[in-house]
Structures are given as C-alpha cells and as structure tokens.
UniProtKB/TrEMBL annotation:
One example of a Gene Ontology biological process annotation: carbohydrate metabolic process
Name of this chain's protein: Polysaccharide deacetylase
Coiled-coil stretches noted in the UniProt entry, renumbered to this chain: none
Organism: Streptomyces abyssalis
Domain NodB homology intervals: 63-325
UniProt GO molecular function: hydrolase activity, acting on carbon-nitrogen (but not peptide) bonds
A Pfam entry, by short name: Polysacc_deac_1
Compositional bias segments (type: Low complexity): 301-317
Region listing for Disordered, in residue ranges: 296-325
C-alpha cells in the first residue's frame, strides 16, 4: 500500500508499515534540558507572543472590516501594552510574526528588535501548512524569512508554524532553510532534538501546548459555537501551576500568547500577576526562544545519557550465563 493509497482506507486496515511510518516521520530524540541554567538560575521562562493581527481572517479570505478590526486591536493596543509590561519586568520575549502582519505593521516589528526581543517566522499569512503542497509551503516560509529579515534587519533563527500546523513536508523545509529551532510540536515539556524517520537532525524543538496558550480560553467566534469558557483568573491559576511545576523540576516554563487576545485590559491583569508570581522567584532565567534553543543545543555536544533501565556501556564484554558465579 503506497502512502497515497492509504488515505482512502480506514486506519484499522492499514498495514504496520503505514501507521508506523507516520508515527516515526517526526519524533522526539534526545532530551536537551541543560544540567544548569545561566547565572545559577533554577528554571527558565520563555515567553512568546504570536503577533497574528489581521492575518487570521485574511488567511481564510475573510475581508469583513469587523474581523479585520478585531485583529488590528493587537497592533493598535495589545502589542504596545505587552511591550510596556515586558520592559517593566526586564523580561525578553519572542514575537512570532506572519510576514503579512510585519508588512502591515513594520514599525512594530522593528520595535520588537529595538527593545531587545526576538522576532521569529510564523508563516506568510498564517496559512495552514497541511493544506499546502510541499513546494508552496517552502516558498511561503522562505518568503516570510526574507521579509522579516528585510524589515527588522535580523535574520530569524526560529520558526513557529501557523496554528502549530505541521505537514508531512514541514520538517524538511525547516531543515533546508537552516533554522536553529522549531516551536510547534508538543511531545515534551522540555526542549528536545527532533528525529526524522529515526535520524537525528540537530534541530531543537521548544515544545508548546494548548494549556499554555491564551487563544483556547478566550477566543470568540460570533457566528460559530466558539465562545470564551474560562475566567481569566482561572487561567492564571493554571499558568501559575505550570510555572511552579517547571520551577520545582528545574525545567522550562514556555508560554504562547497573542497581543489581540491577551492585550485586553482584563486579561493583561493576569499576565501582570503571573509575572509578579514568577518574579517572586529570584533564580529564574527569562530567555528568548533563540537563547533557550542555544542553551539546549549545547547538550548535543555532550555524551548521550543512557536510556533508563539500561546499563552504561563498558569496554568489558558481558559475562556469559555459564561464567556467572
């Protein structure tokens, strides 16, 4: 059965080679959690903001002024409020920005870099990668990379696919374009190396999750069933618990927010209170995703840790059963 034939066949009829091939295509490799953080910090905090703005409706061909205005709020109000808050806490962050969003708001994109933050690739117009052919996907990511480089004067080192939509060709495109890291997958709490069909790629993954994203809690669709279902302060409690667990384990607390979502007054309150909570721990390293990826990638030069439950390798051959006492 070819890769194309199986799509019209129920999954319970797939031979093992098909379902195993899908599972193994993009997989977790070595864990890349450093043994220590810079300046003796106990945990790392990686804040990120997806500055989608008007690209969400534009992606779907929606040109309603009402929908575009909802996205414009992120540029007009949300982004500035976020930047002022980050400055107050001295916290660098990563802003993943669709290229069309940067073209609409070039001064905003440049301000991110000017104020010490990172700008990462987030697609061309927040397209859905799984609906694209491999060539179109690569063309759009390359165009986005070049556009952000031209506008900000900095070449992005990381990518977050729009909507965390990862197609069968996304990984190869990311590798071909030389990105240091990706932040679109959800296979761990901590950074790890991505495997392609069992082969180590050297690509660092900074994993995300819907739990640590503001959109699922607060997004509103006027004509659909999508309605905000969680009080902002309940979300604050979830995020505090996520940070506290990362802190206890000496790991990473990664958060994904959107200026047009979190930037509203009643929601910005919980981001401020979250940063107050994190700031109450003196030994925390605030890092951009690029900084975190570089710290994680250093682990690739270290000997791989043995798999749990296996004995470390030695130069002495194992004793045969007849030679054991």
């Amino acid at each position: 059965m070819s890769a194309h034939d199986h799509r019209s066949t129920p999954s319970w009829q797939w031979p093992e080679s098909v379902w195993r091939g899908h599972v193994d295509a993009v997989r977790t490799g070595r864990g890349l959690l450093p043994p220590s953080w810079p300046d003796g910090a106990r945990a790392a905090v990686a804040l990120s903001f997806d500055s989608d703005h008007e690209t969400i409706p534009l992606r779907d061909g929606e040109t309603s002024p009402g929908l575009l205005a909802q996205g414009e709020y992120g540029a007009r109000k949300g982004a500035g409020r976020v930047l002022e808050l980050l400055e107050r806490y001295g916290a660098p962050a990563t802003f993943f920005m669709p290229a069309v969003s940067a073209l609409l708001h070039p001064d905003e994109a440049r301000r991110y870099v000017h104020e010490g933050h990172e700008v990462g690739v987030h697609g061309w117009i927040h397209e859905r990668n799984t609906l694209l052919g491999a060539e179109d996907e690569q063309t759009l990511i390359l165009r986005a990379l070049e556009t952000l480089s031209d506008i900000t004067g900095r070449t992005p080192t990381g990518i977050r696919t729009p909507s965390w939509d990862f197609s069968g060709s996304t990984l190869q495109t990311v590798l071909d374009l030389g990105f240091l890291y990706d932040s679109s997958l959800m296979a761990d709490d901590e950074p790890y190396e991505v495997l392609a069909n069992g082969t180590a790629t050297g690509l660092v993954e900074i994993p995300v999750d819907w739990i640590r994203d503001d959109a699922p809690y607060f997004t509103m669709d006027r004509f659909g069933a999508l309605r905000p279902y969680t009080r902002p302060r309940d979300v604050l409690e979830i995020w505090k618990d996520e940070f506290d667990a990362a802190y206890r384990e000496g790991g990473v607390f990664q958060l994904t927010l959107h200026p047009h979502v979190i930037g509203h007054r009643s929601r910005l309150v919980i981001l401020r209170e979250l940063l107050d909570h994190i700031g109450g721990h003196r030994d925390v390293w605030f890092a951009t995703h690029d900084q975190l990826a570089r710290a994680a990638r250093e682990q690739l030069a270290r000997p791989a840790a043995p798999t749990p439950g296996t004995a470390p390798a030695t130069d002495t051959p194992p004793t045969s059963p007849t030679e054991r006492p």
